[in-house]
Design goal:
The chain has eight helices and seven strands; from the N terminus they run H-H-E-E-E-E-E-E-E-H-H-H-H-H-H. With 570 residues, it is of the alpha+beta class. The strands form two sheets. It has a five-stranded antiparallel sheet, with helices on one face. Helix 3 packs parallel to helix 6, helix 4 (273-346) runs antiparallel to helix 5 and helix 7 (498-529) packs parallel to helix 8 (537-565).
Amino acid sequence: MITRDRSIVTRIVSYACGVVFVLLILGSYALIKFEISLVETFTDERLEKINQSIDDREKRERLSLQKKVRFNTGILSKMSVLFLDNFNPEGLKQSLSSYMNYPETVAVKVLDEDGEPFAAAWSTPDITVPDEDGEPFAAAWKAPDIIVGDALPDDLRLENTLSVQADVVRDGKKWGSLKVYYTDAIISKKIRAAKKNASIESERFKDTSQLRLESAIIKQVAGVLLILLILIFCLTLLLRSLVIGPLNMVSDIAHILTDFDLSVSIDTDRNDEIGRLLTAIDKMVLEFRKIVGDVKSGGERLSGASDQMTENISAIASAAEEISVNVQSVSHSTEEMLQRNVTVASSIEEMSSAMNEVGMNAYQGSCIAGDAVAMADKAGNTMSSLGEAANDIGEVTEVIKRIADETTLLALNADIEAASAGDAGRGFAVVANEIKEFARQSTLAADNIADRISGIQEGVKEAVDVIGDVSGIIDKINHSSETVSLALENQMKAANEIASNAGQANIRARNIALSMEELAKGANEVSMRVGLAAGGKEGETDGRYIDASAAQVARLARELLELVRKFKVE
């Protein structure tokens, strides 16, 4: 069996805080991942917006550059009409050389009205702007000296997409055309630098956000630990007040019940699970108190009945002993009377004196028969009382059986309540097991007593029947004795009638002998039934059995009272 040394509060707090800690860790992890993703998303969106803004700026600057070149080209075309009109290519070349001072201008060519080259100015590449991989990205032709000529050289690489063409017109007449080549390398350089600065700024912002996020994570972890400590403290206080206190109360009550103290009273106004448990315990204690009181009352009645039964058995034994003695005396008297009648038949002279002695013996036999009748009646009454006491004891055993059955049912209910209460009902279960064992012993004792009482009742019934038979026989003997006395008186009055009456007396004496023999047998049977017949082992065994049964009933009654007295109900 696995034992748990930690308290309920410690286990509940540990489990609850463990679950909360895991949930907080998972929540914090999800929140941190979300915050990191949010920072990265925000940084990417910010960088994308900056790049979009730079691209828009680039478009605007390119459009502005194109408009500027167109405007300057228009001015240059109006100025070139004078040189074309006067056919002054050298002057136009000087003007183009001045126009080439604009950093965006790469080359300019002027054609006459026939489309032939008239003048040109250009410069060679001087500035190279690398891209992020170090490769050439754009170039601006700005040599230390501007080159002028009649036409642009064929090996000069120019972009037609970066050019503006205008006709040289004056008064509606076309004098020629003008084409200006420009570059956007400077704008690209500026845009590239702006994007690079934006990327650097974005990385700096990302690093700063990462540092702030790490600081926030540390603060969140500290907050989680603080919340966990506060939760542990609050749970400990709440559980000690809401759980440990009531459980200690239940434990104290269980310890009191293990000491067989049923006088405890439980008053509670709680409506929760603990309150229902205390109410159930209180009801069970009340039921146990009633059961123990009933068992105690039944045990006292059983003890009194067993003592009465012992006294009745002793009285029966004494009465049977007296009956046996009297029957033996009557038997001896009848034997003597028979011998005397034989003597009278043989000698008429001795009959007169023998008649006197026979008269005395007949009178004594009559008295003895009367005493025997009284003794038989007394024995019958005693055996009837013993039967009634046995019936009372049988009723007491039935009461004990019913009480034991109710005790068993209540013990089973107590077992169920203790099992549902868990550890809190463990002491309760001990009490329930003790009561269940007590109920089992009471049932066994009641069954044993019932069996013994049944045997006693059968023996008492047989003894009553035998005593009734003995009483009838003794009554007959009494009548015979009276007849003998009357005959003797008549014989004493008339000696002549002695001879004939002697024969009749002899016959009657034989009848008396037979009757006394039957009476002796009946007396011996009564003595055997109560365990006092001197000549029969079986009678002694039955007597010892009855006496032992009575002693066992008394012992069981005492044990029942001692067991019940362990319970304190007041």
